[in-house]
Structures are given as C-alpha cells and as structure tokens.
Amino acid sequence: MNSIEINLLTNTAGTQKIMVDLLIGTVAAGGSVSFMHPLAPEMAAAFWNKSFEAAARGERAVLGAWNGEALIGTVTLLLDCPPNQPHRAEIAKLMTRVDYRGKGVATRLMEAAEALAVEKGRTLLVLDTAKEEGASGLYEKLGFTLAGEIPDYALKPHGGLTGTLIYWKRIGQSR
Predict the structure, then answer these.
(1) Which end of the chain has fewer CB within 10 Å, C or N?
(2) The domain that contains 39 carries what CATH number?
(3) φ/ψ of residue 15, rounded to 5
C-alpha cells in the first residue's frame, strides 16, 4: 500500500460521485458515520455538498486516500471551532472502502489529518467513535486517549443503540 496518495479533495463531479458511493458503502457495511441504512444517494450527495462548501470557506478539510485512480478512503478535519477553542480540531467521517480495510489506509489518513491540523496551528485533536464496531483500537494505537463513554449515544446504521467513545490527543508540541 505504499502507492497510496493522500490529498485535499474538492467538489468536482467525479469526486462527488465517488464520495457518495463511499459513504453509501460505509453505511451499508455498518459504519457508524451519522447515517442510517439504506442511505439514499440524494442524502449522501447533499451531505458532501455541504461538506465541500464548508471546506471552501476554510471551516474543514476533506482528505482523500487514492490508490491510482481509486478513492479508497477519506477523513474530514473540522476546523470551525468556537472562539474559545481556536487551538482545537476534530476528526470526523473516517471511512475506508471495505476491500481496503486493515491495510493501513486509515492510519495514513489520520497521520495526514494530524499533520494538517498542526500546520493550521492546532494543538488538540478530538474525535468520537462507536463503542460497538468502531475504530477505538486504531485511535489508541495512534496515541489518542479515551476520555470516556456516553451510553446509547446513537443508532447503529442497521438499528439498535450504541455508545460512543470520546478521544483526545495533544499534537504539534512537545509532550
């Protein structure tokens, strides 16, 4: 997987379709990324339109992982924090195509998001993940610290409640 290229994504017609397909596939596979299965393409497209509009305003950055011409994963770095939190950014919507999971794609995306956050002057990253079938092992491997759990936080894509785990990590400074 050394041929993976990570870059910032913009809202082109081609990127939009790939991102819609990735989101629908992630939800269908049980990924807890705020949507329920089955996810309508129109709803997925509206989500990405809003995300790319926010990125154009500098409120977030949408990163994509490419293997040649194939988009195999994405992560969003939320930068639009309240005035008393200019030092913080949030990780959201980490998704890897099912056939590329376990191959280091998510790690590469997270490392790129962290580097971008440091570049933007951020010193704290936060994120949340589903307790059941979430990516807690990945986040802990990457140095994130569990702050706690909120039980019954959200519905799983195919139904039933799951808790969410809240993580944090200091970045871009001597630890």
Answers:
(1) C
(2) 3.40.630.30
(3) -65, -40
